[in-house]
Amino acid sequence: MDICISDDFEEQLTAGGNREREDIELELLLEGIHRLYGYDFRNYALPSLRRRIWHFIHSENVKSISALQEKVLHDRACFERMVQTLSIPVTEMFRDPNVFKTFRENIVPMLRTYPYIRIWHAGCSTGEEVYSMAILLHEEGLYEKSRIYATDMNDRSLAVARQGIFGIEKMKQYTKNYIEAGGTRSFSEYYTAKYNSVIFKPFLQKNIIFAEHNLATDRSFNEFNVIFCRNVMIYFNDTLRNRVHGLFHESLSRFGILVLGSKESMQFTEYGEYYEPLDRVEKIYRKMK
Ligand SMILES: C[S@@+](CC[C@H](N)C(=O)[O-])C[C@H]1O[C@@H](n2cnc3c(N)ncnc32)[C@H](O)[C@@H]1O
Hints:
Blueprint: H1 7-13, H2 19-37, H3 46-59, H4 65-74, H5 76-87, H6 97-112, E1 117-122, H7 128-139, E2 146-152, H8 155-163, E3 165-167, H9 171-180, E4 191-194, E5 197-200, E6 208-212, E7 224-229, H10 238-251, E8 252-260, E9 275-279, E10 284-287
Parallel strand pairs: 1-2, 1-7, 2-6, 7-8
Antiparallel strand pairs: 3-5, 4-5, 8-10, 9-10
The structure holds S-adenosylmethionine.
């Protein structure tokens, strides 16, 4: 569940309201985490990072960012809890159904002409986006010649994704999304219900490789025809966004497709000129050079 913390609450917690001191403490905390654990949050967008860290401080029962630093640097379990707070694993199947509909109608015909298809879901969270793609490719008769690489920095989210087990209460919304996304069958064909959960059919996992990959620190690892990176870069600042776009540009084949989230765009990045927008509303771009 996404957490919303009001600015008032944050101000209350920053008793004394010394922003300059807080910024120094924050910088030291992120530097320490980077040096000790190798996770680099230094270029995450400040407003949401600040809010989440204050929320975490509250939940850990400490009083300041410096006190949190002391705890995080001496207690790996505390650091792991912090990764969960900063990761924001909010997702759903066929999220923004029109993106998947447009992909099915306008991108799939191009993919049909390829001998094989490699797709990267960067920041896949608990996997709902990835199973959605597997279903879409299966219905279009392309799944057999596809490989889907699904990565995230959050190993707990990846563990959920690998299992393919989701809460039954979400299926109503997911079925609605599936139909709006142009789904052609009965959505319940793809899972088996058990108690309060559903288990997605194992054939959907056959061509999916789940792996840990951190967009802030790791390198490109393959060449792809399609990259989905939705609702991830929204939490990054310009420096990190440019790094990730560099990574994607390097990883996409010529005429490769990049799909971003509804609030994200290629505009104002160093790589905008290398892409042609195929759908400005659904944020679908094609690499031209
Ligand atoms: C809001 S979810 C988006 C999930 C999915 N793409 C969607 O749109 O529904 C953001 C995901 O980005 C991941 N993430 C954040 N920073 C990352 C990084 N540096 N490297 C890889 N994944 C990251 C988080 O762990 C989280 O699972």
